[in-house]
Amino acid sequence: MQFSPGDVVEISTPEGLAYVQVTHTHVAYPEVVRILPGIYKDRPALAVLSSAKTRSVVMMPLGGALQHGKIEGARIGTAEIPAPDKKFPTFKMPIRGKKGEIVYWWLWEGEGLTYTLEDDPRLQNASQREVPTLQDFLSMLG
Cβ(126)–Cβ(90) under 8 Å? Predict the structure, then answer.
């Protein structure tokens, strides 16, 4: 199952219905999704969901997880991506020294990598450049 930017996906969880919106696709990486706030008993209007503030941003192989039955859910429509989420997000990855300490950070914004040090303000809003486990992803929804 393939998604396009703007697609809103409903995910069934034990607590109720959760929602994510695909913001970006990349040929070499899983979909970038913004996790929308709230767990719902009934599906809210698409406009309510798409205008919601982003809780967090992750890379997740959403299409494959749905296709293989690892996540129960479906695309419910396509909506405008809010302005703050249109730009490809910054992802961070720590580079560690021999003792496990962070020596510097790689930053990725959909193209090449750049590096930075601990005092860079971009690190505060950057998501980890990793694909969460299915269990971690589902826990982010609740």
Answer: yes
